Amino acid sequence: MMQDTGSQMGHTHLNPRPPLNDTVLKNYHLTSTDIEKFVKLWQEFQMKNMTAQVDECQGYCQGEIYNWLRAYNSIHGYVSLMICIFGTIANILNIMVLTRKEMAKTPINNILKWLAVADMFVMLEYIPYTSYQYIYMGPGEKDLSYTWAVCLLVHMHFTQILHTISIGLTVTLAVWRYVAIRHPNGGCANFLLAHSREAILLPFILSPILCLPTYFVFQVRETYDVDKLNSEAMYHVYFDKDSVLYRFNFWIHSVLIKLLPCGILIVISAVLMHVLCEASRRRLKLRDYNNPAKYAIQLNLNESKSKKPPRCDRRNDRTTLLLVAVLVLFLITEFPQGLLGLLSGVMEKCFFAHCYPPFGELMDLLALINAAVGFVLYGLMSKQFRTTFRSLFMKRHFGSTEMTRLTRVTTTCV
């Protein structure tokens, strides 16, 4: 309500006029009764506009699912705080493990390391925000101070930039694995290997540029309560829903930053799954012991086509399966956000005002879960990660022979 009032007042063009003192009132033949009538008419005009807007958006986003969303929103602060604390610790452990000498030899582990860094900073920033917004302030309570409005604006830009960096690193990870599997000895693979640092640095450079329209769409705005003559200034993050830049920003955010990477990841994930299925069928054929002659012929053909040992093939499959799990989790998180943003750009005012906010906390929850479960995925699906973690935190000399063997296999396979 305060945003609508501020928007309408901000778009009202009045001619310059001198301050209303007693001399001016006498010159214009104005009395206090005239001023009271004007204020009353202005309030009636505001109420009519608000009623028209409610009638225009009536019937949007109603049903049982929205009741469930509103019920979850009441506990979002506590849930997100626990996930952020766990995710921050988990990502710190990821960084410590992935920066070990035996792990840092492969470009994929370096990408995963910087992905953990971006996710860690997202959660570190979200902890004070959710603690104040959802836990310290009571239900329905709002902080309309200038300091909190600036904090909200910084929170919005900071999380969007870091989240875009995570998207870029995830796409880089998928493209890297695709090239390593489909064209392991081609010119593209050699180029990526020679410029691995530049490939990791690129998302950090492009993300602030892609988020550039957002910097101009949202701003801190000062408003006053029209019902109170001597009301204090109220500050909130304001955006003009009718501006071209606002619509352009929604299209950039939903299509270019969200849906386009999701489309790329869907294609690459399908290709990687196809490679895994082919490898599984190939191993089943090699296990055809019922026909020893056929088995011997297939085994000889397999050895003549590839000089890699079977252990390396199995490790390649585990690495590919791990990355497919990371990509699928990313798609579950990002695709709904892109779809909601696209619908907000197409349906504009009513959808964004009534349908998007109930999903806001749920989208935040999915993003936080995506940023927190990397440690669990790596631990469950990567033997090298588990061995490095045990040697780092449990026993200093645990599995030194195993680590040497894994490092040699990793250098050969990835």
Automatic annotation (TrEMBL):
Q: Which UniProt keywords apply?
A: Membrane, Transmembrane, Transmembrane helix
The record's PROSITE patterns line, in alphabetical order, gives:
G_PROTEIN_RECEP_F1_2 (PS50262)
Residues that span the membrane, as ranges: 75-99, 111-129, 161-179, 200-218, 250-277, 321-342, 362-381
Task: Name the Gene Ontology molecular function terms of this record.
Answer: G protein-coupled peptide receptor activity
Q: Where in the cell is it found?
A: Membrane
Record flagged with keyword ATP-binding? no
Polar residues: compositionally biased ranges: 1-10
**Keyword Membrane on entry:** yes
- Region (Disordered) residue spans: 1-20
What InterPro entries does the record tag this protein with? 7TM_GPCR_serpentine_rcpt_Srw (IPR019427), GPCR_Dmsr-1 (IPR053219), GPCR_Rhodpsn (IPR000276), GPCR_Rhodpsn_7TM (IPR017452)
Q: Name one GO cellular component term.
A: plasma membrane
Q: Where is the G-protein coupled receptors family 1 profile domain?
A: 90-378
Q: Which family does it belong to?
A: Belongs to the G-protein coupled receptor 1 family.
* UniProt-recorded name of the protein: Uncharacterized protein, isoform A
Where does this protein come from, organism-wise?
Drosophila yakuba
